[in-house]
Amino acid sequence: xxxxxxxxxxxGLVESPRWHDGRVYFSDWSAGEVVxxxxxGRAEVVARVKSLPLxxxxxxxxxxxIVDSPNGRLLRREDDGSLTVHADLGLTGWNDIxxxxxxxxxxxxxxxxxxxxxxxxxxFVFLAAPDGxxxxxxxxxxxxxxxxxxxxxxxxxxxxxxxxxxxxxxIGAGGGLSDRRVWADLGDGTPDGICTDAEGAVWYADxxxxxxxxxxxxxxxxxxxxxxxxxxxxxxxxxxxxxxxITAAQWQGxxxxxxxxxGSGRVLVAEVExxxxxxx
Length: 280
Known about the structure:
This protein is 0% helix and 53% strand.
């Protein structure tokens, strides 16, 4: 059994782990905070944004961008800690984000408000290009969640939580998407946050099944890391790229006043064999 330890505890709905410059960054949606922690668990709040969801990504120039969902913006954290507008997305309901090596920011949004108990409607993926333009590049994803770009920069993979699939698109020269296909049918899997590794496999976090699962294209299960609470997202990093960071909390329900049990949010770490590659 894979050894798991708690790096940071006592948090709320934790999401969006991202390894950068010797620390893991993650979001606490309950607190409206972006937090950075070193491998000894020393943590500091680096940004405060009242946004639910609250996801982040790193630009090629080292800038941190933050999804401000209720205001329909991408914010950039400047060196002095201030926040400026990186892109105006318009609309609301934005969820996850990934930025590729050319600075293309892919942001997805649901077609309905699950926390308000609305009827399910398919969601979308939008591109916020380096030139500042924003446009829709994919639709008909039942519930778009985590996203990743393959190590060669050619493919965007999107987790469709409600259909239990990882959906892939070819990334064009201008950042547009084409050639949609099901990258993996996950059966009863419910993919949330995802990441890719150096062998082209995908790790996905699964809230209802309390686990992170590594799958090959086509859906073959290669590895499983079991945790003791809902796993919301995962990312590879650490000095050798083989540390799997998992954000997890005790899930109470989408329409509950507190979707997770207060104080149950943790950043967990486990060592795996294949290092991370690609984005995030």
